[in-house]
Structure formats: structure tokens, C-alpha cells
Design a protein that fits this description.
0% strand, 11 helices, mainly alpha, globular
């Protein structure tokens, strides 16, 4: 087994669980509310960094086992950059499916239980944050992800052609997530007036700037890649034996 495998199969939600445990001793008084955004940002950046490293490990594992993919990776045929954009993750996703299909040639993306992956993702978010100080600091945002059935629609997830992780609407949500990742990682707000216009504020709803939505999307992507990587490993082992 590769040294990367344990990390690749480690769920990203361990970061959320560790965060909730680490701040369990913080009180619920109004004096603690200034901590909310700072802690949410820290968790968010740790999760995006975790996922970027996982994408690198998956790419390297594919390159280790498939010389044609290694050539493409080293020639930078797919512009992966920091492995953080939707385009980069989608490229890893398509390449992983392509290599899986070389072993069990009848593999199709429908073999993944989309409903199970989505339900497990949302249930995990609810279970981790329920009664936590993070949920109490932003109860409205947490209630939204728990009650809304429209945040992540199953028909926007893993279309049957196997060429994309998300369809257009869910892809747009990821692009907003990625924009926030860049703002925080590069501290672009430090030289800008962080004052949204009245038009922006009027257009916002419970989903806007909701970290629980962004956490859910990151966990969803992570769960998809874990399931795919398991199938990839099964194919390699079947080819050996």
C-alpha cells in the first residue's frame, strides 16, 4: 500500500471534528462572537489546503502507476496549478475515472451511489455541528444547511456522462467558494474596503457567505474522491492478481 493511501482515504471532516473539540470550552456569551469569523476562516483555509494536498497525492499515485498519465502530468497537459480550482479538481476526477476504466472496463460513474454520498455529507455536517458553539454563533446559517433541500441538488452532482463532478449551478457555488479561498489565502481584503454595497446586501440570502454551505461542498468533493480512489485501488489489485 502506498504511503499516500492513508491520507487520501482520511475524510476531510476530521478537520471539522477537531475544530469543534478544540473550541468546546468556549462560552456562549456575546463576548465570544468576535471569534466566529476568525475561527470559521481558519477552518475553511485548513480544509481547502487539505483538499489541495489530497489532489496532489491522487495525481502522483496515478502517475506512479500509469506511465502515460505520468507523461501528461509532467508535461503539464492539464493545468493544475495549486490543485484548488474547479478545473483542476475536475481534471483529476476525469483522469481517475479514465484509469479506473482501464481495469474494470465496464465501470460507469453510475456505480457511485450519488444519493448515499450526498446524504452522508449532509448528515455529517449536521452531526458535527449540532449543539456546537460554531452553530450557535451562526444559528441561521446552520439551520439553513440543515433544512434546505435546494443547497445541493442531486441532479447537479456527478452527471451520467462522467465528465464533470458538478453541473452548472453547483459548479457556480464552488466558484464562489474558490473566490473566498483566494481572498483569505492571499489576504486581498487587507487593502480593500470590506464594505458591500446596498445592492449586494439586498441580493444576499441565507446561502450567501455561509461557511456551512462551503464546508458541505468541500466534504462532498472529498467523499466523491474517496469512493473513486477505493475503486481505483480495487482495480489495481485485481490487475495484480
Amino acid at each position: 500500500m502506498s504511503g499516500h493511501t492513508d491520507f487520501i482515504l482520511t475524510p476531510i471532516n476530521t478537520i471539522l471534528e477537531d475544530a469543534v473539540s478544540a473550541i468546546a470550552g468556549i462560552g456562549t456569551g456575546i463576548d465570544t462572537y468576535p471569534l466566529c469569523d476568525y475561527i470559521m476562516q481558519s477552518i475553511f483555509l485548513k480544509m481547502t489546503g487539505f483538499q489541495e494536498q489530497k489532489m496532489r497525492c491522487i495525481a502522483w499515485e496515478m502517475a506512479t502507476n500509469d506511465y502515460e498519465y505520468r507523461r501528461r502530468l509532467l508535461n503539464n497537459d492539464d493545468v493544475l496549478g495549486e490543485y484548488s480550482t474547479y478545473k483542476a479538481k475536475n481534471a483529476i476526477y476525469k483522469n481517475l475515472i479514465e484509469l479506473i476504466e482501464k481495469n474494470p472496463p465496464d465501470f460507469v460513474i453510475n456505480y457511485l451511489d450519488k444519493s448515499n454520498i450526498l446524504n452522508n455529507t449532509l448528515d455529517m455536517i449536521k452531526n458535527v455541528f449540532t449543539d456546537s458553539i460554531l452553530a450557535k454563533w451562526n444559528q441561521r446559517g446552520f439551520d439553513f444547511i440543515c433544512s434546505s433541500k435546494n443547497v445541493i441538488k442531486i441532479d447537479q452532482l456527478l452527471p451520467e456522462n462522467g465528465k464533470n463532478i458538478f453541473e452548472s449551478n453547483l459548479k457556480s457555488k464552488y466558484e464562489i467558494l474558490y473566490k473566498q479561498r483566494n481572498r483569505l489565502a492571499h489576504n486581498t481584503l487587507s487593502y480593500q474596503q470590506n464594505l458591500p454595497t446596498l445592492e449586494t446586501l439586498v441580493a444576499e440570502d441565507d446561502e450567501s457567505r455561509n461557511y456551512f454551505v462551503w464546508f458541505s461542498i468541500l466534504v462532498l468533493i472529498d467523499n466523491i474522491f474517496i469512493e473513486l480512489y477505493k475503486k481505483y485501488q480495487e482495480g489495481l489489485e485485481a490487475a495484480i492478481y
